[in-house]
Structure formats: structure tokens, C-alpha cells
Design a protein that fits this description.
InterPro entries: Endoribo_LPSP/chorism_mut-like, RutC-like_sf. It comes from Thalassobaculum fulvum. It holds the Pfam family YjgF_endoribonc. This is Endoribonuclease L-PSP/chorismate mutase-like domain-containing protein. This protein is α+β, with helices and mostly antiparallel strands. The chain has a single domain, classed as RutC-like (60s Ribosomal Protein L30, Chain: A), CATH 3.30.1330.40.
């Protein structure tokens, strides 16, 4: 039934933005067969970067989890573009990968990336369950705290 995912987004109070244009020499997603590989998304909201800083110093785990959620909304925006505007074409969220800009010794990367993972399940239900990685790093583009990428299977 067309519009099922859009209806779920509306129930959740989530508005999917126009997908951001790439900021460097890459494309926002690549389709290969029935898979869509979405480039890493940073926490852009209305064209403004949110969530600058290091987790464990400038931001708490809970704040960073919210930033990962913003990244996931931007991933869904790119997936929607790849599906010609029809998110009901998403068969499955295959994989989510999260990078967390954090201080040395920080070990709560999985809890941060849960912000993205939880959103995928909230939006797509069982189709949103995915494999995943969550890693810490010393820096991310533009100083953001979180960047998330994903692979979607589409019909």
C-alpha cells in the first residue's frame, strides 16, 4: 500500500528534508542492483550543521544519540530520493555504520549509534532491523560529533 512509510513518519512527527547535496567529489548514493549505498550523512538541519564537538567532552552520550538520529533522518531522505520519492520501495535496511567523534577512552559508541538504529526500526518496523558497526574516531568532517552511513535494499 503506497504511503505506508510516509504515514508512519507522520505518526512519529518526522519530516523528511530535501536531501543535502554532496560537499565534495562524491555522490549521495549509488544504486547497484537492488541495493542503495548511501554516503555518510552528517547532522544537517535546515542547511545548518548541528552537533559539533567531541562526545565525552562537549556532548553527552544522550545528546550524541540525538545527533545520530538526525543523521538517520538524512539517510532516509537520500533513500527516498533513490526510490523516486516512494519509501514503500524499501525492502530492508541492510546495514548501518556509525562514526563517533569522541575522546580517548570513550566506549559508548554503540549507545550513540542506537539513535540511528532505533529510528530505522521505528520507521520501517522489522524491515528496519539491520547489521551495524559503531566506531570511535578522533575527528569527523566539519567537527561533527556523529556521521552515519547505510545500505538499503529496494524493490
Amino acid at each position: 500500500m503506497a504511503g505506508t512509510v510516509d504515514g508512519r513518519l507522520k505518526e512519529l512527527g518526522i519530516e523528511i528534508p530535501t536531501p543535502a547535496a554532496p560537499a565534495a567529489n562524491y555522490i549521495p548514493f549509488v544504486k547497484s542492483g537492488n541495493l542503495v549505498f548511501v554516503s555518510g550523512q552528517i547532522p544537517l538541519v535546515a542547511g545548518k550543521i548541528e552537533g559539533i564537538g567531541k562526545v565525552g567532552k562537549d556532548l553527552t552520550t544522550e545528546q550524541a544519540k540525538g545527533i545520530a538520529r538526525i543523521c538517520a533522518i538524512n539517510l532516509i531522505a537520500q533513500a527516498k530520493a533513490a526510490c523516486d520519492g516512494d519509501l514503500d520501495r524499501v525492502v530492508r535496511v541492510v546495514k548501518v555504520g556509525g562514526f563517533v567523534n569522541c575522546v580517548d577512552g570513550y566506549t559508548e559508541q554503540p549507545e550513540v549509534v542506537n539513535g540511528a538504529s532505533d529510528l530505522m526500526v521505528d520507521v520501517f518496523g522489522d524491515k528496519g532491523r539491520h547489521s551495524r558497526f559503531a566506531v570511535g574516531t578522533n575527528a569527523l568532517p566539519r567537527g561533527v560529533a556523529v556521521e552515519v552511513e547505510a545500505v538499503f535494499e529496494i524493490a
